[in-house]
Amino acid sequence: MSQDLSATPEAPKEDGRPKWDNKFQYILSCIGFAVGLGNVWRFPYLCQIHGGGAFLIPYFIALLFEGIPLLHLELALGQCLRKGSIGAWNTISPYLGGVGSWMVSVLVSLYYNTVLTWVMWYFINSFQEPLPWSVCPLNENRTGFNEECYESTAVNYFWYRKTLNITPDIAESGTFRWWLILCLAACWAIVYLCTIRGIETTGKAIYVTAIFPYLVLTIFLIQGLTLPGATEGLIYLFTPNLNTLKNPRVWLDAATQIFFSLSLAFGGLIAFASYNPTKNDCEKDAVTVALVNSMTSLYASIPVFSVLGFKAKTAYWDCLDRNIINIINEFDLPEESIMRQNYTSWISFLNSSYPEKIAGLKLKRCELQEFLDQSVSGTGLAFIVFTQAIILMPGSQAWAILFFIMLFSLGLSSMFGNIEGVFTPLLELQIIHKPAPKELLSGIICLISFLIALCFTLGSGSYWIDIFDRYAASVPLLIIAFFEVIGVVYIYKIKRFSEDVEWMTGRKLNLFWQITWRFISPLLLLIVFMAFVILQMQKPPSYTAWNPKYEGFPMKEEKVYPPWVQAICVLLAALPGMCVPLVALFHLVKQRRRSKEPSFVLPEVSSCQGANSSFSHPKE
Amino acid sequence: MLRALLLILSVVAIAHAELCKPDAQNAFKVRISIKTALGDNAYAWDANEEYLFKAMVAFAMRRYSSKSATQISNVLLCNVTDRVSFWFVVTDSSKNVTTVPGSEVEAAIRMNRNRINNAFLLSDKTLQFLKITSTLSPPVDPPTPVWLIVFGVVLCLIVAGIVFLIVSGIQKHKKKNKEPTERENLEEKVEVTLENGIPCEALDLKAGHINGVFAADDDRFTSL
After folding, report:
1. Can you give the pTM of this predicted structure?
2. Which of A20, A32, A105, B218 is the most exposed place for a label (fewest CB within 10 A)?
3. Does B166 reach chain A within 8 Å, measured CB to CB?
């Protein structure tokens, strides 16, 4: 009787491995994993600061030579070896040791779900009229507004005080924010609900979480294009400035964006592909997923920039209106004598006639370009800039609810991939005894992750998430991807791998893949890694803190990380990457000792087809 | 007689002019933004509106100090501009040619702010008394915050989903466990049958139970 990998009921294949219900589910899961929050809040920002339409040139070059080949490699690897990341790496060569990418998946799952916690917090606060981030609360004696809120904006206040209740320094942890703990528990419960039986349940959930964001993006697209100022925003975004291409920083950003956007080297893609039947065209899958990911980034940037243009236009009008009111009040002119259109002529007239009075008013400079230039990415875009724009739209509750559900779906489908990257290797390593059901393992993973992630709900939690984002989810991935390519091409041998891929896809491996896998992709990865590290080393790692007592408030205060925090940063960046040489060393030492025994046989690197043929017969 | 009257009137007029001027003691500046508040339905600010304003201030003073001494003529307006903004003071008729202290006026206006606003179809922002800050109304706070209710709903749905999936998993697990045990029982029967080496069906034949040799010899033995 063949032994199942788990005792839970699933239609087992001959080797008992669970499988996708259909091909569409698999493709959708890969797309959902790749398309995440970064497509919405990082790509448009990069496009904007790197010369608009011109950024697409390095972006598509990086996609062609780095993104698609690496994606194809991972999918082919998982499909061929039919194992999670640790198993697959061990199968290629025990020297490689796959624990690195597993560790990165764990670290990323921890902090990524906390970002989703914030999204959920905003979502459940969107059901009120008026939206809580649109008005400042009153101070104690109800004569005015809360001071911190008044000096910055209501949106900033809600984010930094009501949501994070942030401390002014990373060394001050503060207490647990109980409302965030509730939301964190709910988020991990949702993740548990969807990943409870592995791909059996995520496969069903992905239909909703992967498709829903596209619907909402389309709705926002239509709404966004009707808003005033949308055209200015879009023109600003897409106007190409080819001069920026001379800056190597642009090329580096394009390469890193493609790499991180496709969620490579996490082990999640290998896990997804390992549930495929072996005779599957992984080449077409890889190209499809990569193209859909990039198209989604482009598609998402249109509504984002329409809304940002609208916000800039509204801020510009507000600035003008405030100046107009001040002038009218000062000179006691009749209402509506100065309108936005004739503002400039009036200002020049008044400046010439009463320059001291005008100077005394301290009017702000109102330039539309200045407001458009205020570019933000990441959580700032979603929770500060976009929420402010939503207040200005009619029916803001509905827009807020839609927006935050969309962000939640985007993040949740990426979480599935992360959790799968953690779950599948543990399942294969058989950490818990076989009769225990899968539900128990996924429950344990979610519970432990929830408990560890509680430290992100402290006052300084958001600073720690920035650290994790910058250090744990960047450099280690580059190292792991590099070793992945080298391992497959030079240890497993490209000739054997191309035979495997040919067996799987049914046609000969294109020369393009040979060239990119052998030379271009590893070289690109090496260059990107070096450039990344050099850029990070150039200045001491610093962060910006929200400190109401700072003189320059509401500007954020620039602070340097204390030494113990810097040590943790280095640990986060180095540890997953160091796994590869450490495990190699460990195995080398073991082999040296064992090779002294007479009955020692060199461990053979099993082949893809060989591994599959051993699976076709049930083990007695 | 006439000259005396004229003299008194001019003195009063001058005194009034002295009492009401910009930045005078106990004088308040008012700024009105009718077009901002009413848009197309804006009315023009004319002498009738000024009269109403004086009446409202007098009303406020009466209500506040509850002595019916203040008359409309006690409220003086001056420096009306196109903005529409002007200054006003409230004089005290009991003490000649003095103004009511600013604190009293402020308290009276504050107490009746709502009534004054409504008379002109304006709000605190569009009918501004520049030195009098308005107490902002507190936001409506429901007893349970709304977000907690929504959170409760979401959590209930999630927990229901998890319980459903776990229970269905356990049920399928039990069904699967019953099938293999049934199959095992069948196998045992087959094995038992086989273990003996002789099929049970064969053992059921008479040839197994009854020895044909002895049965044939029954007739040879004599009966007792």
Report:
1. 0.83
2. B218
3. yes
